[in-house]
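User: structure tokens for this one?
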Amino acid sequence: MDSVVSDATAVSEKPAVAGIPAQPGPEDPVLDAEEGAQDWQLDHSRAPIATKIVVAGGFGVGKTTFVRAVSEITPLQTEALMTRASEDTDDLTATPDKLTTTVAMDFGRITLDNDLVLYVFGTPGQQRFWFMWDDLVRGAIGAIVLADTRRLTDCFPALDYFESCGLPYIVAVNHFEGTELFEADDVREALTVPAHVPVVIMDARKRYSVVETLLAMVAHALDATPE
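Assistant:
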């Protein structure tokens, strides 16, 4: 009888009938559905501090690449193919291989700490889309102005905008491969950026570099608005 009972138990745990999935036995590992989740996602008694940062700059300076490199979720991108109609307005001299452009915004998310989540919004670079900036910056704690040393004048509109609205910002020089590398102080002088505004040299393609830039922005925002 014992033999019959043990055999029946074995069959009920792991049926051999074709088409019926085997039931896990006591020795089989059980997958954890919450594996890889953040602490704040598992603790429903508390919510993380959610903050918003805007990434702005000229056309083709690397804003979409910035968001894509750091986002822990699939980033939202509003890329459209460039056509001949924009040849007279969009200068591709510095980025001849660029085939698409952002027409609304880029959006990504990164968890910097157990209780700090950053929502990163990338603005469109062309002047014809600047009307969206007022909506994108609403609620942001600060902004990152991306600059390309080959086209420094392209970031002046963003600098003027954030200066006028009083939003804390930093300047991040996106160093493109094959271009001359300048010191941060040289860029600060060329852009006449105030001494209290951080200027960093970074690579928008590399996640660690983007994270360091975001941390610099958060630290500057806290210094500027400690309350």
